Structures are given as C-alpha cells and as structure tokens.
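Recall that a protein's primary structure is simply its ordered list of amino acids. Everything else, from secondary elements to tertiary packing, is in principle encoded there. The following example makes that idea concrete.
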Amino acid sequence: MLWKPEFTVNMLLNSEQLLHVAITHVSWSSEVRCSFVYAKCIATERRGLWNDLLTLSTNLRSRPWIVGGDFNVIASEDEYLGCAPQDL
C-alpha cells in the first residue's frame, strides 16, 4: 500500500518496539491506525511496549485500529522448542 497513490501513510510513533501509522485511502470515510510490533524477548523489556499500546488505545477512542507483529511471547511451554528457560 505504500507505493499506491490512492493510499496515504503517516508515521505517528516510531519507538524501539513499535511503529504506529495512520493509513487513509481515497475511498475510505476515515483513517485506520495500524501498530506494527516487534517486541523484546524478555518480559521486563516489553513493559515499554505495553505502556505505548495502552496509551495509544486510550487516545484512539472509536477509530479503527489494527495491531500485529511479533510479540515474542509464548502462551505455553508446548509452543517452545529449545533448552533455554522461558518466562511465560
């Protein structure tokens, strides 16, 4: 979408673990906010990411928002292959 002239992408926040943009299209009635995540592997280092996402969520009100990416979190040890201990 970045190269198509009918889309406009404006970067709103670029932090260490998060890129947050506003996307508009000529046929849309409102913009869509998108957050692209590449989270730190250690849980304590992700705290800044969660704070950023919480702040964004309170400021968005009822605007459409898509969040995606790599959160570097596993839900259970069954998802993990390796010998290093994981913080769930």
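The beta strands are 7-14, 18-25, 32-38, 65-70. Helices lie at 47-60.
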